[in-house]
Amino acid sequence: MSINQNQEKGMGFIIGASSVGTLIEWYDFYIFGMLATIISKQFFPEDSGTSALLSTLAIFAAGFIVRPFGALVFGRLGDLIGRKYTFLLTLILMGGSTFAIGLVPGFKTIGWAAPIIVLVLRLVQGLALGGEYGGAATYVAEHAPAKQRGYWTSWIQTTATLGLFLALGIIILIRNSQGVEKFSGEWGGWRYPFWISLLLVIVSIIIRMRMSESPMFAKVKAEGKTSVNPLKESFGHRANFKMVLLALFGAVMGQGVVWYTGQFYAQTFIENICKVNFVDSRNILMIAILFATPFFVIFGALSDKIGRKWIMLIGMLLAVVSYRFVYQNFLDYTNVAAKRTMIDVSKTTKSDAIASIDTKDKKKALVNTKYDSVYTDGAVYTFTKTDTLHFASDYAGATASIAYIIAKKDDATVLDTVTVKAKTTAGVTLAEGITYITAEKKSAKPGVVIEKSLDSGTFWKMVGWVFVLIVFVTMVYGPMAAFLVELFPTKIRYTSMSLPYHIGNGVFGGLVPFLGTLIVEFTKTKDLPAGDPLAGLWYPIGIAALCFVIGAIYLRNHIDEDVMD
Protein backbone atom coordinates (compact mmCIF):
# COMPACT_ATOMS: atom_id res chain seq x y z
CA MET A 1 0.00 0.00 0.00
CA SER A 2 1.33 3.41 -0.96
CA ILE A 3 2.17 6.21 1.45
CA ASN A 4 -0.74 8.27 0.09
CA GLN A 5 -3.16 5.37 0.63
CA ASN A 6 -1.91 4.91 4.20
CA GLN A 7 -2.24 8.62 4.82
CA GLU A 8 -5.78 8.69 3.45
CA LYS A 9 -6.75 5.65 5.54
CA GLY A 10 -5.39 7.44 8.60
CA MET A 11 -7.24 10.61 7.64
CA GLY A 12 -10.44 8.57 7.41
CA PHE A 13 -10.17 7.58 11.07
CA ILE A 14 -9.12 11.11 12.10
CA ILE A 15 -12.10 12.64 10.28
CA GLY A 16 -14.49 10.00 11.66
CA ALA A 17 -13.32 10.29 15.26
CA SER A 18 -13.27 14.10 15.20
CA SER A 19 -16.54 14.42 13.31
CA VAL A 20 -18.61 12.05 15.45
CA GLY A 21 -17.87 13.98 18.63
CA THR A 22 -18.35 17.37 16.99
CA LEU A 23 -21.60 16.23 15.35
CA ILE A 24 -22.93 15.07 18.73
CA GLU A 25 -22.00 18.38 20.35
CA TRP A 26 -23.88 20.25 17.62
CA TYR A 27 -26.82 17.87 18.10
CA ASP A 28 -26.83 18.63 21.82
CA PHE A 29 -26.65 22.34 21.18
CA TYR A 30 -29.43 22.46 18.58
CA ILE A 31 -32.19 20.25 20.01
CA PHE A 32 -32.99 23.15 22.36
CA GLY A 33 -33.66 25.47 19.41
CA MET A 34 -35.62 22.85 17.49
CA LEU A 35 -37.95 22.44 20.49
CA ALA A 36 -38.14 26.15 21.40
CA THR A 37 -41.92 26.39 20.89
CA ILE A 38 -42.60 23.45 23.24
CA ILE A 39 -39.92 24.46 25.76
CA SER A 40 -41.44 27.96 25.98
CA LYS A 41 -44.70 26.39 27.16
CA GLN A 42 -43.00 24.06 29.65
CA PHE A 43 -40.60 26.44 31.40
CA PHE A 44 -42.69 29.64 31.42
CA PRO A 45 -46.26 30.54 32.54
CA GLU A 46 -48.96 29.22 30.17
CA ASP A 47 -50.41 32.67 29.51
CA SER A 48 -47.08 34.26 28.48
CA GLY A 49 -47.73 33.93 24.73
CA THR A 50 -45.09 35.46 22.46
CA SER A 51 -43.03 36.67 25.44
CA ALA A 52 -42.45 33.03 26.48
CA LEU A 53 -41.13 32.19 23.00
CA LEU A 54 -38.91 35.29 23.02
CA SER A 55 -37.61 34.35 26.50
CA THR A 56 -36.86 30.82 25.28
CA LEU A 57 -35.05 32.16 22.21
CA ALA A 58 -33.12 34.49 24.55
CA ILE A 59 -32.01 31.47 26.64
CA PHE A 60 -31.11 29.73 23.38
CA ALA A 61 -29.11 32.80 22.34
CA ALA A 62 -27.37 32.95 25.74
CA GLY A 63 -25.64 29.68 24.89
CA PHE A 64 -24.27 31.33 21.76
CA ILE A 65 -23.16 34.50 23.52
CA VAL A 66 -20.91 32.63 25.99
CA ARG A 67 -19.26 30.59 23.23
CA PRO A 68 -16.41 33.12 22.84
CA PHE A 69 -15.63 32.71 26.56
CA GLY A 70 -15.49 28.95 26.06
CA ALA A 71 -13.17 29.58 23.13
CA LEU A 72 -10.80 31.55 25.40
CA VAL A 73 -10.87 29.00 28.24
CA PHE A 74 -10.59 25.82 26.19
CA GLY A 75 -8.52 27.40 23.43
CA ARG A 76 -5.91 28.24 26.05
CA LEU A 77 -6.04 24.67 27.41
CA GLY A 78 -5.74 23.27 23.88
CA ASP A 79 -2.60 25.30 23.20
CA LEU A 80 -1.12 24.36 26.60
CA ILE A 81 -1.95 20.67 27.09
CA GLY A 82 -3.00 19.54 23.60
CA ARG A 83 -5.96 19.19 21.24
CA LYS A 84 -7.08 15.67 22.14
CA TYR A 85 -7.77 16.00 25.88
CA THR A 86 -9.26 19.47 25.58
CA PHE A 87 -12.04 18.53 23.21
CA LEU A 88 -12.58 15.31 25.15
CA LEU A 89 -13.39 17.52 28.16
CA THR A 90 -15.73 19.74 26.11
CA LEU A 91 -17.62 16.66 24.92
CA ILE A 92 -18.23 15.48 28.51
CA LEU A 93 -19.45 18.93 29.61
CA MET A 94 -21.78 19.25 26.65
CA GLY A 95 -23.28 15.80 27.06
CA GLY A 96 -23.77 16.19 30.81
CA SER A 97 -25.52 19.55 30.59
CA THR A 98 -27.75 18.40 27.71
CA PHE A 99 -28.84 15.30 29.64
CA ALA A 100 -29.54 17.49 32.69
CA ILE A 101 -31.82 19.84 30.72
CA GLY A 102 -34.04 16.82 30.07
CA LEU A 103 -34.35 16.27 33.85
CA VAL A 104 -35.46 19.81 34.84
CA PRO A 105 -39.13 19.88 36.02
CA GLY A 106 -41.47 22.33 34.29
CA PHE A 107 -42.75 25.73 35.45
CA LYS A 108 -45.90 24.14 36.93
CA THR A 109 -43.75 22.09 39.31
CA ILE A 110 -40.90 24.38 40.42
CA GLY A 111 -41.93 27.81 39.09
CA TRP A 112 -39.26 30.31 38.03
CA ALA A 113 -36.50 27.95 39.17
CA ALA A 114 -37.15 25.97 35.95
CA PRO A 115 -36.04 28.61 33.40
CA ILE A 116 -33.16 29.70 35.68
CA ILE A 117 -31.75 26.15 35.89
CA VAL A 118 -32.19 25.69 32.14
CA LEU A 119 -30.36 28.97 31.52
CA VAL A 120 -27.39 27.84 33.64
CA LEU A 121 -27.20 24.51 31.81
CA ARG A 122 -27.50 26.29 28.49
CA LEU A 123 -24.51 28.48 29.45
CA VAL A 124 -22.48 25.34 30.21
CA GLN A 125 -23.43 24.03 26.75
CA GLY A 126 -22.21 27.27 25.18
CA LEU A 127 -18.90 27.19 27.03
CA ALA A 128 -18.31 23.57 25.99
CA LEU A 129 -19.10 24.22 22.33
CA GLY A 130 -16.77 27.23 22.44
CA GLY A 131 -13.89 24.82 22.96
CA GLU A 132 -15.03 21.98 20.70
CA TYR A 133 -14.98 23.33 17.16
CA GLY A 134 -11.55 24.95 17.31
CA GLY A 135 -10.07 21.74 18.65
CA ALA A 136 -11.65 19.49 16.03
CA ALA A 137 -10.85 21.80 13.09
CA THR A 138 -7.27 22.34 14.27
CA TYR A 139 -6.76 18.63 14.90
CA VAL A 140 -7.93 17.65 11.39
CA ALA A 141 -6.08 20.50 9.64
CA GLU A 142 -2.81 19.63 11.35
CA HIS A 143 -3.10 16.05 10.06
CA ALA A 144 -4.26 16.94 6.54
CA PRO A 145 -2.01 16.97 3.43
CA ALA A 146 -1.09 20.56 2.49
CA LYS A 147 -2.87 20.62 -0.87
CA GLN A 148 -6.04 18.97 0.45
CA ARG A 149 -6.61 20.96 3.63
CA GLY A 150 -9.83 22.55 2.37
CA TYR A 151 -11.19 19.15 1.34
CA TRP A 152 -10.42 17.33 4.60
CA THR A 153 -11.47 20.13 6.96
CA SER A 154 -14.74 20.54 5.04
CA TRP A 155 -15.84 17.21 6.51
CA ILE A 156 -15.70 18.85 9.95
CA GLN A 157 -17.82 21.66 8.48
CA THR A 158 -20.60 19.18 7.67
CA THR A 159 -21.00 18.25 11.34
CA ALA A 160 -22.93 21.37 12.35
CA THR A 161 -25.57 20.81 9.68
CA LEU A 162 -25.60 17.03 10.18
CA GLY A 163 -26.00 17.58 13.93
CA LEU A 164 -29.05 19.68 13.11
CA PHE A 165 -30.27 16.91 10.78
CA LEU A 166 -29.84 14.29 13.53
CA ALA A 167 -31.71 16.48 16.02
CA LEU A 168 -34.59 16.97 13.56
CA GLY A 169 -34.76 13.26 12.72
CA ILE A 170 -34.88 12.07 16.34
CA ILE A 171 -37.46 14.71 17.31
CA ILE A 172 -39.80 13.85 14.41
CA LEU A 173 -39.42 10.10 15.01
CA ILE A 174 -40.37 10.41 18.70
CA ARG A 175 -43.21 12.86 18.02
CA ASN A 176 -44.75 10.66 15.33
CA SER A 177 -44.57 7.59 17.55
CA GLN A 178 -46.12 9.33 20.58
CA GLY A 179 -48.61 11.79 19.14
CA VAL A 180 -48.82 15.53 19.78
CA GLU A 181 -50.31 15.57 23.29
CA LYS A 182 -48.04 12.93 24.82
CA PHE A 183 -44.96 14.40 23.15
CA SER A 184 -45.75 17.93 24.40
CA GLY A 185 -46.61 17.00 28.02
CA GLU A 186 -44.47 18.13 30.98
CA TRP A 187 -42.63 14.79 31.05
CA GLY A 188 -43.41 13.94 27.44
CA GLY A 189 -41.33 12.76 24.52
CA TRP A 190 -39.76 16.17 23.88
CA ARG A 191 -37.36 15.30 26.74
CA TYR A 192 -36.13 12.06 25.11
CA PRO A 193 -33.71 13.74 22.64
CA PHE A 194 -31.93 15.32 25.64
CA TRP A 195 -31.62 11.93 27.36
CA ILE A 196 -30.49 10.15 24.19
CA SER A 197 -27.52 12.53 24.15
CA LEU A 198 -25.93 10.63 27.05
CA LEU A 199 -25.66 7.43 24.98
CA LEU A 200 -24.26 9.31 21.98
CA VAL A 201 -21.64 11.04 24.13
CA ILE A 202 -20.47 7.75 25.72
CA VAL A 203 -19.92 6.26 22.24
CA SER A 204 -17.99 9.34 21.14
CA ILE A 205 -15.80 9.34 24.26
CA ILE A 206 -14.79 5.73 23.60
CA ILE A 207 -13.84 6.66 20.01
CA ARG A 208 -11.93 9.79 21.02
CA MET A 209 -9.92 7.94 23.66
CA ARG A 210 -8.28 6.03 20.78
CA MET A 211 -7.09 9.24 19.10
CA SER A 212 -3.46 10.37 19.27
CA GLU A 213 -2.30 13.97 19.63
CA SER A 214 -1.94 16.24 16.59
CA PRO A 215 1.53 15.63 15.05
CA MET A 216 2.21 19.36 14.65
CA PHE A 217 1.34 20.11 18.29
CA ALA A 218 3.30 17.04 19.44
CA LYS A 219 6.36 18.30 17.53
CA VAL A 220 6.04 21.82 18.97
CA LYS A 221 5.64 20.36 22.47
CA ALA A 222 8.63 18.01 22.05
CA GLU A 223 10.76 20.96 20.99
CA GLY A 224 9.59 23.00 23.98
CA LYS A 225 8.02 25.65 21.75
CA THR A 226 4.47 25.58 23.12
CA SER A 227 3.02 28.90 24.15
CA VAL A 228 3.44 29.87 27.80
CA ASN A 229 0.53 32.34 27.58
CA PRO A 230 -1.65 31.69 24.49
CA LEU A 231 -4.08 34.49 25.35
CA LYS A 232 -1.33 37.10 25.56
CA GLU A 233 0.36 35.90 22.38
CA SER A 234 -2.95 35.73 20.48
CA PHE A 235 -4.33 39.10 21.46
CA GLY A 236 -1.39 40.98 22.95
CA HIS A 237 0.73 40.92 19.81
CA ARG A 238 -0.49 43.53 17.37
CA ALA A 239 0.14 41.54 14.18
CA ASN A 240 -1.71 38.46 15.43
CA PHE A 241 -4.56 40.47 16.95
CA LYS A 242 -4.99 42.21 13.58
CA MET A 243 -5.48 38.79 11.98
CA VAL A 244 -8.06 37.87 14.65
CA LEU A 245 -10.05 41.02 13.85
CA LEU A 246 -9.72 40.47 10.11
CA ALA A 247 -10.93 36.89 10.45
CA LEU A 248 -13.95 38.06 12.47
CA PHE A 249 -15.09 41.10 10.50
CA GLY A 250 -13.91 40.01 7.06
CA ALA A 251 -15.16 36.41 7.07
CA VAL A 252 -16.69 34.75 10.14
CA MET A 253 -19.21 37.47 11.03
CA GLY A 254 -20.91 37.16 7.64
CA GLN A 255 -20.60 33.38 7.60
CA GLY A 256 -22.31 33.21 11.02
CA VAL A 257 -25.44 35.13 9.98
CA VAL A 258 -25.69 33.25 6.67
CA TRP A 259 -25.47 29.90 8.48
CA TYR A 260 -28.26 30.68 10.95
CA THR A 261 -30.50 32.53 8.49
CA GLY A 262 -30.28 29.67 6.00
CA GLN A 263 -31.19 26.98 8.52
CA PHE A 264 -32.39 28.00 11.97
CA TYR A 265 -34.19 31.20 11.07
CA ALA A 266 -35.69 29.50 8.01
CA GLN A 267 -37.23 26.82 10.23
CA THR A 268 -38.41 29.41 12.80
CA PHE A 269 -39.92 31.57 10.04
CA ILE A 270 -41.68 28.68 8.31
CA GLU A 271 -43.16 27.41 11.59
CA ASN A 272 -44.00 30.64 13.43
CA ILE A 273 -44.64 33.17 10.63
CA CYS A 274 -45.93 30.92 7.83
CA LYS A 275 -47.64 28.65 10.42
CA VAL A 276 -46.56 25.43 8.70
CA ASN A 277 -47.14 22.48 11.01
CA PHE A 278 -44.45 20.97 13.24
CA VAL A 279 -43.69 17.91 11.10
CA ASP A 280 -43.82 19.61 7.67
CA SER A 281 -41.58 22.50 8.77
CA ARG A 282 -38.93 20.11 10.05
CA ASN A 283 -39.20 17.71 7.12
CA ILE A 284 -38.61 20.62 4.74
CA LEU A 285 -35.37 21.45 6.54
CA MET A 286 -34.28 17.81 6.84
CA ILE A 287 -34.69 17.05 3.14
CA ALA A 288 -32.97 20.28 2.10
CA ILE A 289 -30.06 19.50 4.45
CA LEU A 290 -29.77 15.97 3.03
CA PHE A 291 -29.39 17.24 -0.55
CA ALA A 292 -27.23 20.29 0.26
CA THR A 293 -24.70 18.76 2.69
CA PRO A 294 -22.36 17.34 -0.03
CA PHE A 295 -21.72 20.92 -1.17
CA PHE A 296 -19.68 21.57 2.01
CA VAL A 297 -17.11 19.08 0.72
CA ILE A 298 -17.42 20.30 -2.90
CA PHE A 299 -16.68 23.92 -1.97
CA GLY A 300 -14.00 22.86 0.53
CA ALA A 301 -12.20 20.89 -2.20
CA LEU A 302 -12.69 23.73 -4.71
CA SER A 303 -11.04 26.14 -2.27
CA ASP A 304 -7.86 24.01 -2.47
CA LYS A 305 -7.68 24.89 -6.17
CA ILE A 306 -8.89 28.51 -6.44
CA GLY A 307 -8.52 29.81 -2.87
CA ARG A 308 -10.92 30.32 0.06
CA LYS A 309 -11.72 34.03 -0.18
CA TRP A 310 -14.02 34.42 -3.17
CA ILE A 311 -16.01 31.24 -2.57
CA MET A 312 -16.95 32.54 0.89
CA LEU A 313 -17.59 36.12 -0.20
CA ILE A 314 -19.72 35.15 -3.22
CA GLY A 315 -21.83 33.00 -0.88
CA MET A 316 -22.39 36.04 1.35
CA LEU A 317 -23.25 38.27 -1.61
CA LEU A 318 -25.77 35.78 -3.01
CA ALA A 319 -27.41 35.60 0.42
CA VAL A 320 -27.62 39.39 0.72
CA VAL A 321 -29.33 39.90 -2.66
CA SER A 322 -31.71 36.92 -2.44
CA TYR A 323 -32.93 36.61 1.18
CA ARG A 324 -35.99 38.86 0.90
CA PHE A 325 -37.01 37.25 -2.39
CA VAL A 326 -36.73 33.70 -0.99
CA TYR A 327 -38.56 34.49 2.25
CA GLN A 328 -41.29 36.36 0.34
CA ASN A 329 -41.82 33.13 -1.61
CA PHE A 330 -42.36 31.30 1.70
CA LEU A 331 -45.09 33.82 2.54
CA ASP A 332 -46.69 33.65 -0.91
CA TYR A 333 -46.77 29.84 -0.95
CA THR A 334 -48.63 29.75 2.39
CA ASN A 335 -50.92 32.76 1.84
CA VAL A 336 -54.47 31.90 3.01
CA ALA A 337 -56.11 34.50 0.77
CA ALA A 338 -54.68 32.86 -2.34
CA LYS A 339 -56.46 29.60 -1.51
CA ARG A 340 -59.98 30.86 -0.77
CA THR A 341 -61.34 29.71 -4.12
CA MET A 342 -59.87 26.22 -3.58
CA ILE A 343 -61.75 25.23 -0.40
CA ASP A 344 -63.38 21.79 -0.58
CA VAL A 345 -66.47 22.43 1.54
CA SER A 346 -67.51 18.76 1.52
CA LYS A 347 -64.32 17.76 3.37
CA THR A 348 -63.98 20.78 5.70
CA THR A 349 -64.75 19.86 9.33
CA LYS A 350 -65.56 21.69 12.54
CA SER A 351 -64.57 20.45 16.01
CA ASP A 352 -66.66 20.76 19.17
CA ALA A 353 -66.45 24.16 20.83
CA ILE A 354 -64.45 24.04 24.08
CA ALA A 355 -64.85 26.59 26.87
CA SER A 356 -62.01 27.55 29.24
CA ILE A 357 -63.05 29.38 32.40
CA ASP A 358 -60.75 32.26 33.35
CA THR A 359 -58.97 31.26 36.58
CA LYS A 360 -58.85 34.87 37.81
CA ASP A 361 -62.31 36.02 36.67
CA LYS A 362 -64.98 33.31 36.96
CA LYS A 363 -67.41 35.52 35.04
CA LYS A 364 -65.35 35.13 31.89
CA ALA A 365 -64.70 32.19 29.58
CA LEU A 366 -62.95 31.69 26.23
CA VAL A 367 -64.72 29.45 23.73
CA ASN A 368 -62.43 27.94 21.08
CA THR A 369 -63.68 26.24 17.92
CA LYS A 370 -61.31 24.60 15.43
CA TYR A 371 -62.01 24.33 11.71
CA ASP A 372 -59.99 22.11 9.38
CA SER A 373 -60.30 23.69 5.94
CA VAL A 374 -59.46 21.17 3.23
CA TYR A 375 -58.35 22.48 -0.18
CA THR A 376 -58.62 20.86 -3.59
CA ASP A 377 -54.81 20.67 -3.93
CA GLY A 378 -54.56 18.52 -0.78
CA ALA A 379 -53.54 21.23 1.71
CA VAL A 380 -55.25 21.42 5.11
CA TYR A 381 -55.28 24.69 7.06
CA THR A 382 -56.46 24.60 10.65
CA PHE A 383 -58.21 27.74 11.90
CA THR A 384 -59.25 28.54 15.44
CA LYS A 385 -62.06 30.94 16.30
CA THR A 386 -62.11 32.35 19.83
CA ASP A 387 -65.18 33.94 21.42
CA THR A 388 -65.14 35.59 24.86
CA LEU A 389 -68.18 34.99 27.05
CA HIS A 390 -69.14 37.34 29.90
CA PHE A 391 -71.41 35.58 32.43
CA ALA A 392 -73.97 37.30 34.65
CA SER A 393 -72.49 35.50 37.70
CA ASP A 394 -69.41 33.52 38.69
CA TYR A 395 -69.22 30.10 37.07
CA ALA A 396 -69.19 27.37 39.72
CA GLY A 397 -69.99 24.26 37.68
CA ALA A 398 -67.96 21.04 37.47
CA THR A 399 -69.67 19.25 34.60
CA ALA A 400 -68.33 18.10 31.24
CA SER A 401 -70.62 20.50 29.36
CA ILE A 402 -71.68 24.13 29.74
CA ALA A 403 -74.90 25.56 28.30
CA TYR A 404 -74.89 29.34 28.16
CA ILE A 405 -78.07 31.30 27.66
CA ILE A 406 -77.69 34.48 25.62
CA ALA A 407 -79.87 36.90 23.69
CA LYS A 408 -79.86 36.50 19.91
CA LYS A 409 -78.01 39.14 17.91
CA ASP A 410 -80.91 40.01 15.63
CA ASP A 411 -83.59 39.93 18.36
CA ALA A 412 -82.60 40.66 21.96
CA THR A 413 -86.03 39.50 23.23
CA VAL A 414 -85.34 35.93 22.13
CA LEU A 415 -82.93 33.81 24.17
CA ASP A 416 -80.71 31.17 22.66
CA THR A 417 -79.08 28.25 24.47
CA VAL A 418 -75.66 27.10 23.22
CA THR A 419 -73.94 23.99 24.58
CA VAL A 420 -70.14 23.68 24.61
CA LYS A 421 -67.66 21.29 26.19
CA ALA A 422 -65.75 22.35 29.31
CA LYS A 423 -61.97 22.22 29.09
CA THR A 424 -60.38 19.93 31.65
CA THR A 425 -56.96 20.17 33.27
CA ALA A 426 -54.54 17.25 33.43
CA GLY A 427 -55.57 14.65 36.02
CA VAL A 428 -59.10 16.08 36.50
CA THR A 429 -62.23 14.26 35.33
CA LEU A 430 -65.45 16.26 35.07
CA ALA A 431 -68.81 14.68 35.87
CA GLU A 432 -71.21 14.01 33.03
CA GLY A 433 -73.96 16.59 32.78
CA ILE A 434 -74.63 20.21 31.84
CA THR A 435 -74.23 23.39 33.86
CA TYR A 436 -76.58 26.18 32.74
CA ILE A 437 -75.52 29.81 33.09
CA THR A 438 -76.64 33.15 31.71
CA ALA A 439 -74.23 35.07 29.46
CA GLU A 440 -74.61 38.85 29.25
CA LYS A 441 -72.59 39.25 26.06
CA LYS A 442 -70.26 37.47 23.64
CA SER A 443 -67.23 39.11 22.01
CA ALA A 444 -66.28 37.38 18.77
CA LYS A 445 -62.89 37.56 17.09
CA PRO A 446 -62.07 36.62 13.48
CA GLY A 447 -60.64 33.17 12.88
CA VAL A 448 -56.87 32.78 13.08
CA VAL A 449 -54.76 30.20 11.23
CA ILE A 450 -52.83 28.16 13.76
CA GLU A 451 -51.43 25.37 11.58
CA LYS A 452 -50.99 24.54 7.91
CA SER A 453 -50.44 21.09 6.41
CA LEU A 454 -48.97 21.70 2.96
CA ASP A 455 -49.93 20.19 -0.37
CA SER A 456 -47.20 18.23 -2.14
CA GLY A 457 -46.39 20.94 -4.70
CA THR A 458 -45.95 23.69 -2.11
CA PHE A 459 -43.95 21.38 0.15
CA TRP A 460 -41.36 20.64 -2.55
CA LYS A 461 -41.15 24.28 -3.64
CA MET A 462 -40.26 25.22 -0.07
CA VAL A 463 -37.73 22.36 0.11
CA GLY A 464 -36.16 23.77 -3.06
CA TRP A 465 -35.77 27.28 -1.67
CA VAL A 466 -34.41 26.06 1.69
CA PHE A 467 -31.94 23.95 -0.32
CA VAL A 468 -30.79 27.15 -2.06
CA LEU A 469 -30.36 28.87 1.32
CA ILE A 470 -28.25 25.97 2.59
CA VAL A 471 -26.08 25.99 -0.56
CA PHE A 472 -25.20 29.59 0.39
CA VAL A 473 -24.29 28.19 3.82
CA THR A 474 -22.00 25.58 2.25
CA MET A 475 -20.21 28.26 0.22
CA VAL A 476 -19.37 30.43 3.23
CA TYR A 477 -18.78 27.58 5.68
CA GLY A 478 -17.15 24.78 3.65
CA PRO A 479 -13.73 26.51 3.24
CA MET A 480 -13.88 28.32 6.62
CA ALA A 481 -11.90 25.87 8.77
CA ALA A 482 -8.97 25.75 6.34
CA PHE A 483 -9.08 29.55 6.03
CA LEU A 484 -8.86 30.05 9.81
CA VAL A 485 -6.20 27.40 10.40
CA GLU A 486 -3.91 28.98 7.80
CA LEU A 487 -4.10 32.41 9.45
CA PHE A 488 -2.41 31.48 12.74
CA PRO A 489 0.77 29.74 13.97
CA THR A 490 0.57 26.25 15.52
CA LYS A 491 1.43 27.19 19.11
CA ILE A 492 -1.52 29.60 19.46
CA ARG A 493 -3.79 28.30 16.67
CA TYR A 494 -6.47 26.75 18.93
CA THR A 495 -6.95 30.02 20.86
CA SER A 496 -6.57 32.42 17.93
CA MET A 497 -9.01 30.75 15.54
CA SER A 498 -11.58 29.79 18.18
CA LEU A 499 -12.34 33.33 19.38
CA PRO A 500 -13.27 34.96 16.03
CA TYR A 501 -15.14 31.81 15.02
CA HIS A 502 -17.32 31.78 18.12
CA ILE A 503 -17.94 35.52 18.17
CA GLY A 504 -18.97 35.39 14.52
CA ASN A 505 -21.14 32.30 14.90
CA GLY A 506 -22.10 32.50 18.54
CA VAL A 507 -22.89 36.21 18.84
CA PHE A 508 -23.57 37.55 15.33
CA GLY A 509 -25.01 34.28 13.98
CA GLY A 510 -26.61 32.87 17.12
CA LEU A 511 -28.65 36.02 17.67
CA VAL A 512 -30.35 35.77 14.26
CA PRO A 513 -33.48 33.82 15.42
CA PHE A 514 -33.94 35.99 18.54
CA LEU A 515 -33.25 39.38 16.93
CA GLY A 516 -35.18 38.46 13.79
CA THR A 517 -38.27 37.55 15.85
CA LEU A 518 -37.84 40.62 18.07
CA ILE A 519 -37.54 43.01 15.10
CA VAL A 520 -40.79 41.62 13.64
CA GLU A 521 -42.47 42.18 17.03
CA PHE A 522 -41.39 45.84 16.98
CA THR A 523 -43.07 46.35 13.59
CA LYS A 524 -46.50 45.29 14.91
CA THR A 525 -49.07 48.10 15.20
CA LYS A 526 -52.85 48.40 15.52
CA ASP A 527 -53.11 48.92 11.78
CA LEU A 528 -50.62 46.11 11.05
CA PRO A 529 -51.12 43.54 13.86
CA ALA A 530 -48.91 40.96 12.14
CA GLY A 531 -46.11 43.48 11.59
CA ASP A 532 -43.65 43.18 8.71
CA PRO A 533 -42.70 39.48 8.60
CA LEU A 534 -39.62 40.21 6.49
CA ALA A 535 -38.25 42.95 8.78
CA GLY A 536 -36.14 40.45 10.74
CA LEU A 537 -34.03 39.78 7.63
CA TRP A 538 -32.46 43.23 7.68
CA TYR A 539 -30.15 42.16 10.53
CA PRO A 540 -28.42 39.25 8.69
CA ILE A 541 -28.50 41.16 5.38
CA GLY A 542 -26.75 44.15 6.94
CA ILE A 543 -24.10 42.06 8.74
CA ALA A 544 -23.36 39.90 5.67
CA ALA A 545 -23.14 42.97 3.40
CA LEU A 546 -20.69 44.72 5.75
CA CYS A 547 -18.58 41.56 6.04
CA PHE A 548 -18.51 41.19 2.24
CA VAL A 549 -17.14 44.72 1.82
CA ILE A 550 -14.45 44.28 4.50
CA GLY A 551 -13.44 40.84 3.20
CA ALA A 552 -13.31 41.97 -0.43
CA ILE A 553 -10.96 44.83 0.46
CA TYR A 554 -8.68 43.30 3.08
CA LEU A 555 -8.63 39.48 2.74
CA ARG A 556 -5.99 37.73 0.61
CA ASN A 557 -6.88 34.77 -1.60
CA HIS A 558 -3.69 32.99 -0.57
CA ILE A 559 -3.47 29.30 0.32
CA ASP A 560 -0.79 28.68 2.94
CA GLU A 561 0.56 25.19 2.27
CA ASP A 562 2.95 25.27 5.24
CA VAL A 563 1.01 25.68 8.50
CA MET A 564 3.85 24.25 10.59
CA ASP A 565 5.01 27.62 11.91
Describe what this molecule looks like in 3D.
This protein has 565 residues and is α+β, with helices and mostly antiparallel strands. The chain has helices at 3-34, 36-42, 50-65, 67-81, 83-101, 107-110, 113-141, 149-178, 180-184, 192-208, 215-222, 230-235, 238-262, 264-273, 278-292, 294-306, 309-333, 456-477, 480-485, 493-509, 512-522, 538-554; strands spanning 349-350, 354-357, 364-374, 380-391, 399-407, 415-422, 431-444, 448-453. Strands 2-3-4-7-5-6 form a 6-stranded mixed barrel. The protein is elongated, with a radius of gyration of 27 Å.
Question: In a few lines, what is going on in this structure?
Answer:
It contains 22 helices and 8 strands. It is α+β, with helices and mostly antiparallel strands.
Overview features:
single chain, 565 residues, alpha+beta, 6-stranded mixed β-barrel, 22 helices, 8 strands, 12% strand, elongated
